[in-house]
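Margin note: ligand = adenosine-5'-diphosphate.
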Amino acid sequence: MTNVSEIYGSEVFNDHVMQERLPSETYKTLSKTIKEGKPLDIDVANVVAHAMKEWAIEHGATHYTHWFQPLSGITSEKHDSFLNPKSDGTAIMTFSGKELIQGEPDASSFPSGGLRATFEARGYTAWDPTSYAFIKAEVLCIPTAFCSYTGEALDKKTPLLRSMRVVDEQAQRVLKFFGEEGHRVMTTVGSEQEYFLISEKDYEKRPDLMWTGRTLFGAPPCKGQELEEHYFGAIRPTVNNFMKELDDDLWALGISAKTKHNEVAPAQHELAPIFTNTNRAIDENLLTMEKMRLNATHHGLACLQHEKPFEGINGSGKHNNWSLSYDNVNLLDPGDTPMDNLRFLVFLTCVIEAVDEYQELLRMSVASAGNDHRLGANEAPPAIISIFLGDELGAIVDALISGDEYHSAERVSMDLGVAVLPKFLKDNTDRNRTSPFAFTGNKFEFRMPGSTVNLSDCNMILNTAMAKSLKDFADAMADTTKETFEKQAIKYIKKTLADHQRIIFNGDGYSDEWTAEAERRGLANHKNTAEALPCFVDKKSIDLFEEFGVLSETEVRSRYEVKLDKYTKLLNIECNVMIHMARRMYLPAIGDYMADVANTINSVKTALSGVDMSEHESVLNYLVKGNNAAAACVRTLMKVHDEAEAIEDLQEQANFYADTVIPAMDALRAEIDALEPVVESSYWPVPSYNDILFYN
Ligand code: ADP
Ligand code: MG
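Resulting structure:
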């Protein structure tokens, strides 16, 4: 049995450790830096670095690294030892303030979208003291931002931190009208991570899983998820052991892994931590994903984090639960008193406005080759952004817009002119799994992100769009007095809600009627990544990011390019792997089986002249036809793949992949999958869905 309180946070240089190990003056200065974002001077950094090193060495560390998130979205690290040799042949362990604050990795191999020419290859990493340093595999990891020498952000963290700062500034302006001053407003995130665990032996036999993270071929299994027995089912011992080790490791890293359970699909699971501030929540999510992948191998398992590892089986998402708060006050909590209610309605209205105004950007932030298989596939939210408020809150918003009296479920009527909300809102447990952006009592749950994605992009957009709505509100209220504020605020809420009502939808997001209705309402419906990305560089988007200093136009354009590049590169790899598997594995195996069936027919006919072999002959015919069709599909795929790779303009190339190459990939898969149930299983070159999805 693990003593949780003993191991919790034991590998983290957290506030408790800082207080214990730093001289009180240093601790005070560092706390100020962390809380207020003040710069740290080198003398203080030297003291902190020394304490950090001593602590790290006591915990078995020999190296340190600046841990950062380049535009690829994953984490990067380069280990340097603390070792410092002396002229007398001995060595000491050192770590300076300068080494803590700033690093200079050779950045030439990280994606930059043209921001950094190779001759200016240096980038620098800068310590982010708002996320704690921690020890991982004997390395002291220091969370850092990553920038080019000319100051442009080359990572996911920098714009996220900028967006957290601007939403804080604007939220504080709004809170002043409510007499609440001087509190730092934080956005909070709790991310639910879905993943698959399969046997490592099966994984190693499938080049598609190893090289692309998903199966590019595979006929449906005899049994899928239709019995829904896996959801919340008893966890099998192998997986349980994996989860237990994972919990222990995460707790030691101060990550509050809270909930674990089996998901709907066979072999699918979920882990949810307790929410924290957005910056730390994302660092924690990335660490969690890394631990999952590495620890799986200790149990003979492979962890699949792709959004759609298996066709016909639910894919994996990463729900982004999001709210804003100061101290312990959650600003999306409806509250009990009229003034709290009004504040809630103001923040709610600003969220609705932000999501409607920047719906395309939000959709863009979760677009990827992998997530294209999920969104709109009746298992995940559609590609259309809408907001679910639930019946009660929906009715209140309707009443505010129409000016009618509001009647609660209990038929209590209320005059919303004084903004009194019914108490039951908090327990509003309405669930609508089909909504991409759902109000869940005191937070919003953004359900579009895929399991692989780094959540920085969507939160950076959410925060910046929210900052814009809050700013517009604060500007509009500038001339109000204590006496007139309430009336003016309600007027503003009513008008803004009326303007953005189209984004609210409480019905079934999977239905065809919704797609048609959404189109009538003028909501965007970008079906794939190639369609979703261009809005990033629209004037409206660039204006938003520049107005708040979250991204410069150059930074926006570079990020757009990196996303396009990643999309086409992934599809290029998928094409290579498909062609490789078809030509070197499937077609030869089908050929072998064909020859065996033909031999059987011939030898039986020789033994028994005139015998009826029509069943075997029909199988042979089916195999020959299927084999020829598959071979033709391979030729077509090779041709369009070559055409795609020859296109120079990145957006055009992405469009061509989406419109022409993907259908050719689908066609090849359909032919091979149709042969799988007919070919005797010992001939089949890779484990089938039946083998992979059900194991002990
Ligand atoms: P589910 O969506 O499966 O019902 P829960 O309601 O238990 O899950 O919560 C999902 C996630 O939401 C958890 O990670 C939780 O910590 C997080 N969460 C709860 N309150 C907030 C909040 N104020 N801000 C951000 N995340 C929150
Ligand atoms: Mg959820």
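Residues 188-190, 192, 272-275, 321-323, 330, 442-443, 445 surround adenosine-5'-diphosphate (ligand 1) (CB under 6 Å).
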